[in-house]
Amino acid sequence: MGTAAWSKTFVYCSEASPEGFDPGLYTGGQTFDAAAHTVYNRLVEFKRGTTEIEPALAESWDISADGKEYTFKLRKGVKFQTTEYFTPSRELNADDVIFSFERQYKEDNAWNKYVPGASWEYFSGMGLPDVIDKIEKIDDLTVKITLKRPEAPLLANLGMPFISIVSKEYADKLQADGKMELMNQQPLGTGPFTFVAYQPDAAIRYKANPDYWGGKQAIDDLVFAITTDAAVRAQKLKAGECHLMSYPNAADVAELKADPNLNISEQAGLNVAYLAYNTLVAPFDKVEVRKALNMAVNKQAIVDAVFQGAATVAKNPIPPTMWSYNDAVEDDKYDPEAAKKMLEDAGVSGLKMKIWAMPVARPYMLNARRAAELMQADLAKIGVEVEIVSYEWAEYLKLSSDKDRDGAVMLGWTGDNGDPDNFLDTLLGCDAVGGNNRAQWCDKEFDDLMTKAKETADVAERTKLYEEAQVIFKREAPWNTIDHSLAVVPMSKKVSGFVQSPLGDFVFEGVDIAE
């Protein structure tokens, strides 16, 4: 006897609204989860649960002996999604790939500034406009990228969300209709889920893409239930209102583990939390002032209060689980008296400063307000008066990049590709000043090491260069490194197929639920 068809709906309690739906424009993890990992694909992607690159829209590739030419063979028969707002007339081809790259760095491309203030922060911050010489269509299913110099992290970079492949045909239609802004509101890609609707600050709805080249998903409908309060996310999960949640409060983890209806996935996070001084603004342009402030903050107390044991104090800008981590580096020791004297010797007294506290939980910092309050109390002991400020999350990310920004910004990073370059150069390189480099710190000695490390494929040589770079970073102290956290993902026992990502992504391809 036949049974009535029923729809499987998977509900994910997410922590924040996306900044938009065009992954190239942004750097926020919540945006990548809501767009890049649902609607879109890339030429290459990371094998689930690893930092290992595997074929995606490109089924194979060749790299020239000199490391300057990458030739990608595209997968045949890949269909773009059909939505209420667009029906594609053709399959993925080389034109889509070239368009997806060129719009991010060619200033004469009509799409380069289609969103006011578009900076393509990742593409430019990683120096790709300087390293790419040209991108050519060899034939409909072959694309060649020629570089000006070898770039060892390139393949790993191409697996990242910012270089998702968009439809040139859809872009051309939006441009012809004078509705280019819809690219960032009504996304359309080749990915496992098709965008249906977004209710700002409430919910995003998707349906399984029936034409997905990787096969239709087991779940029919996917809902992101945007829930900014971690305690409320936990309540919803326990009540069965969502199947999986992001970033629980450390205080709630024991209770979630005790719930017989839940499973908890845990792993060391490939992450770091930091406080970035604006090194372009006095007196934070003085290394001794930055060092003094670092020595005044009890980081272990922050880790204990915010993470309750599920994090370790950070001394380097990359996590201990990453290759090239320099364990020989010594942290700035907690010493308020020495900090006070260092400020006096630097001629700084009556210092007033702002500390920016993130309005949302991130894996590397579950409660920025609490961390900022602890810093505020510590710094008061050495005569520094701190005002804590915050902004709506998308605004926070935007304003904190400004070169003339007032105050030290609390932020962090979860690695995107498993390569040290993705932390050290992306967050601290000269190319990233005014973007991901929130310290606005440009050090020639450090930057030269980054360039050398990119130009060699020898991992032993790259390791030496990155170890040396960490020594320079610690000496110059553009950040106060705060913590590396344990990543915890609670989910219903009904969930199968979810693989926790070392990159911190929430990816629902391959996920199923038992009813």
Could you explain how this protein is built, in words?
- This protein is α+β, with helices and mostly antiparallel strands and 515 residues long.
- It is built from 16 helices and 20 strands.
- It has helices at 29-36, 94-105, 121-125, 128-131, 154-158, 168-176, 230-238, 253-258, 287-296, 299-307, 336-345, 368-380, 393-399, 421-428, 444-455, 459-476; strands at 9-14, 44-46, 53-55, 58-63, 69-74, 132-139, 142-147, 193-199, 203-208, 221-226, 244-245, 262-268, 271-276, 311-313, 352-356, 385-389, 408-414, 479-492, 495-496, 512-513.
- Strands 12, 13, 14, 15, 16, 17 and 18 form a 7-stranded mixed sheet that branches. Strands 8-9-10-1-11 form a 5-stranded mixed sheet, with helices on one face.
- Strand 2 and strand 3 (53-55) form a beta hairpin.
- It is globular, with a radius of gyration of 23 Å.
- The mean pLDDT is 95.
- It is found in: Periplasm.
- Belongs to the bacterial solute-binding protein 5 family.
Task: Return Rg in Å.
Answer: 23 Å
Beta fraction of the residues?
A: 15-25%
Task: Indicate the structural class.
Answer: alpha+beta
The end-to-end distance, rounded to whole angstroms, is 20 Å
Low-pLDDT sequence parts: none
Q: Which descriptor suits the 3D outline?
A: globular
Mean pLDDT: 95
Q: How would you characterize the largest beta sheet?
A: 7 strands, mixed
Beta strands, count: 20
Question: Which range best describes the helical content: under 10%, 10-25%, 25-40%, 40-55%, 55-70% or over 70%?
Answer: 25-40%
Question: Please, how many helices?
Answer: 16
Family: Belongs to the bacterial solute-binding protein 5 family.
Domain Solute-binding protein family: 52-432
Keywords: Signal
Organism: Shinella yambaruensis
